[in-house]
Every structure is written in C-alpha cells, then in structure tokens.
Design a protein that fits this description.
The protein is mainly alpha-helical. 40% of the residues lie in helices and 9% in strands. The chain folds into two domains: 187 residues, D-Maltodextrin-Binding Protein, domain 2 (3-Layer(aba) Sandwich); 92 residues, no CATH class. It is built from ten helices and nine strands. A hairpin with a 2-residue loop joins strand 6 and strand 7. The longest helix has 28 residues.
Length: 316
C-alpha cells in the first residue's frame, strides 16, 4: 500500500484502487481472531462485519470525490496508464520500482501501514514457500524421455536467466551477467526497449529464497519488497495462517468441480453488490438482502467442507 506525496498537496487527494473489490476475490478467508493470536477458522469473507465497514468507507470516499469513479470499472491497462502518468494519490501495488512508472513515482511515494480501527483493518496474507507443479508431462505423451530432457534444460540456471531477464551480457534491453567479485548473477537494463525480447518464463523468479540468495545479487526491486515485508511483520499485520492452506487441504475432484461452478456465481454476486454499495451506499435492508442471497447458494456447506479439510490438514 502506498501513497504519493504531492508538493504542494492538492485540495482533494484522489484514491486510485487497482482492479478493486468489484471482482470479489476474497470469497473465503482464514479469519483473524485477534491482532496477536489468530485461529484457522474458515469464514465467508463478504458477509463479515468488516466487509460492510470496508464498502461503507469506500462509499464515503466515493461521495467526497476521493475515490476514482473509474475504480469500479477500469481494467489493469487503464490503471497502468494512470500510474505511468503519476495520476494517483493513494494506491496499492506489489512494489513501485522496476514497474515502468518512472523514477518520479518512486521518489514521491512512501509505503504506509494499513490503518486499523477498532481491531478491523487490512491484513497481509502470509506467503508460503511451497513446491507447486509447473511443467507437467501428460499420460498421453509419446516422448517422455525427450520431454524430461527438455524440462531439465529449461530449469538450468543460465537458461532461466536468459528466458526471464534477457541474454547474458546484453548490450541492449535487459540482460544479466556474472558479478566479477562474488560470482553471483546481476540483472540490469542496458537500454530501454519498447518490444520485449525475452520469453518471460519466470519459474526461476519464484524459486526458493535460499536458491535465489545463493545465485543472484538481489535487485533494488527485491530489496524494496523485503523492506516492506519486514515492516509489515514487525507491525503484526501478516496473518498467521496463509490462505494457501485452502489450496492444499485435499479436496477431491468432485468437490473442486462443484466449488468452481459455485465460485463463479459467488464472484458475480459479490462483484455486483460491492459496486452498488460503493456507488450508492449501504443500508440495513440492502445489507440483509445481500447476506440472505447466499443462503440458497450452498455457501454454508462450502465453508463447512473447507473447515473440515483445514482441520485435517493442521492435525497432520
């Protein structure tokens, strides 16, 4: 989460949210019990009091002209254009350096902690270093040995560096080279290019931290993100239980297929209501209607099945 410091500050500072709550992404969350002690209770996020408080606050910002009116409908390309032009006040982002928004954005911005009121506020998800399938060989593959050799070549350190950052010792665009002092890889930009010349296969970018630390000299963008994470951790706003547990709790194929269809309907319902709440406000009647809407959608069973699976996972 970042805010841009204008000099002098405008009378009203615009809030620009990237691809906001209209998508209703957080359908289920590992709920926070207290700020310091958290429990693995699965809850349906959109019907919690905190969700109502959030859309009420966004509506207040919308009414005061502090929220970009296009935040309810803009796509990522529109948002990127605004960020590139520096036409934002308060926004959230993974990081700000090395994002193509210009040095001005980086120099005139600062990272802030999400505010918390009466124990409610934004909390960061805990990211787990887990092995996840990337390159798969299907049962119908007729050239298994060749496929394994191909994947093995793809995972070579220098090959991955070429695919993601560009060629070794590049003289234009982006590239990488070995550091003469410590033998680790440095990534760099030789010249600006408008056409990407690397495949952008980023498996190595998300490799285990210990591997990255041994092979690469960390770029300014990575160091920037590390500083943010340390600040969030010290402030106690990183959840104890990661939402990634929901992806590793062992649901069977039938449950996953059923949930995939259900989540589409839930996403649409949450997106429609959230946009209306932000634009027109929330009343007790409109909120109760919104909450009751999910009773006939199987949400209680949805949450119950996940809770049972989480309990089994944590007991192992």
């Amino acid at each position: 989460m970042r805010k841009t410091l204008a000099d002098p500050p405008p009378k009203k500072q615009m809030i620009c949210l990237p691809d906001p709550i209209r998508k209703g992404r957080t359908l289920i969350k590992i709920a926070r019990k207290t700020r310091l002690r958290q429990d693995p209770t699965v809850k349906f996020g959109p019907v919690q009091d905190g969700f109502r408080a959030a859309v009420e606050w966004l509506h207040a910002c919308y009414e005061e002209g502090l929220l970009d009116p296009e935040a309810l409908s803009q796509d990522i390309n529109t948002l990127q254009a605004k960020l590139s032009e520096g036409n934002v006040g308060f926004f959230s982002a993974w990081r700000i350096s090395n994002m193509g928004w210009g040095n001005g954005m980086y120099q005139n911005s600062e990272c802030i902690l999400p505010p918390s009121v009466d124990g409610q506020g934004a909390y960061m998800d805990r990211y787990l270093e887990l092995v996840r399938p990337c390159g798969l060989i299907t049962a119908s593959c007729q050239h298994v040995e060749e496929a394994v050799r191909f994947l093995d070549a793809m995972m070579d350190t220098e090959m991955q560096a070429d695919l993601y950052y560009g060629p070794q010792n590049a003289t234009e665009g982006t590239g990488w080279r070995y550091n003469a002092e410590n033998g680790k890889i440095d990534t760099y930009t030789a010249t600006e290019l408008t056409v990407k010349h690397a495949i952008d296969c980023n498996t190595q970018f998300f490799a285990p931290g210990a591997y990255i630390d041994n092979v690469y000299n960390l770029s300014p963008a990575r160091l920037e993100k590390i500083a943010y994470c340390q600040m969030y951790d010290e402030a106690g706003i990183i959840n104890t239980y990661s939402s990634q547990y929901l992806n590793m709790c062992g649901l069977d194929a039938d449950q996953l297929a059923t949930f995939a269809l259900l989540e589409t309907d839930i996403n649409n319902a949450v997106a429609e209501a959230a946009a209306d709440f932000v634009a027109h406000g929330v009343t007790d009647d409109s909120w109760n209607t919104f909450v009751k809407r999910f009773s006939s959608m199987g949400v209680d069973e949805y949450v119950s099945i996940y809770q049972e699976a989480i309990n089994r996972l944590l007991a192992e």
